[in-house]
Write a structure and sequence with these properties.
Length: about 200
């Protein structure tokens, strides 16, 4: 690489993060520091994202800790916190993810609650799933998808009266469940059938 600056390093680290090559992204992150290039906000988002998508919990905690302690001359923003919440939730460390959300200096947004909810669902914690889904409904009461999600969680819990309440709220609010669309190719290059699901 002829010209190495923070932008080229960020591109490299983010590309590796997207390719789920977390260990390699972290290696290049530390290499960047060794070469005297100062990390910026984007660098830290990229490397935390790499840790999250590669299950590198300890490394993500360590890097976030350095950010919190002022090593990088700026403090974590919303996206840094979102990456850490995603990191912890994906790993099933749900209580710590919850603590991060309650202690951060701003209110959790829908991205954070969505990441937390995905982790709760993946690790089978229906009570925390319900809590997160309710938070999403509070944040965007006009989004029918969140009501459907909450209804599905209640169904998994066997709480049928709550399923009915949520569906009634949707009906009263004029909210609908979006139709899904799937395509399957039966014979190459011939006909494609679309299946609509309610």
């Amino acid at each position: 690489m002829k010209e190495k600056n923070v932008f080229t390093w960020n591109s490299l680290i983010k590309g590796l993060a997207l390719a789920r090559s977390g260990a390699e992204a972290v290696w290049w992150f530390y290499r960047m520091e060794q070469e005297g290039i100062k990390a910026d906000e984007v660098t830290l988002i990229a490397v935390l994202c790499a840790c999250s998508h590669s299950g590198m919990v300890q490394m993500g905690r360590q890097i976030f800790g350095s950010l919190m302690n002022g090593k990088y001359e700026f403090f974590p923003g919303v996206k840094h916190y979102a990456c850490v919440i995603d990191l912890l939730a994906r790993a099933g460390i749900l209580q710590e993810a919850m603590e991060v959300m309650t202690r951060m200096p701003f209110e959790p947004n829908k991205v954070m609650w969505g990441a937390f909810l995905a982790g709760c669902r993946a690790h089978g914690d229906l009570e925390l799933s319900e809590f997160a889904a309710r938070k999403l409904v509070e944040l965007e009461p006009g989004n029918g998808a969140y009501y459907v999600l909450l209804s599905n969680i209640y169904a998994e819990m066997g709480r049928w009266s709550d399923v009915e309440k949520v569906r009634r709220l949707m009906k009263e609010g004029g909210l609908t469940k979006d139709l899904g669309c799937s395509s399957i190719e039966l014979e190459p290059q011939e006909r494609v059938y679309e299946l609509l699901a309610e």
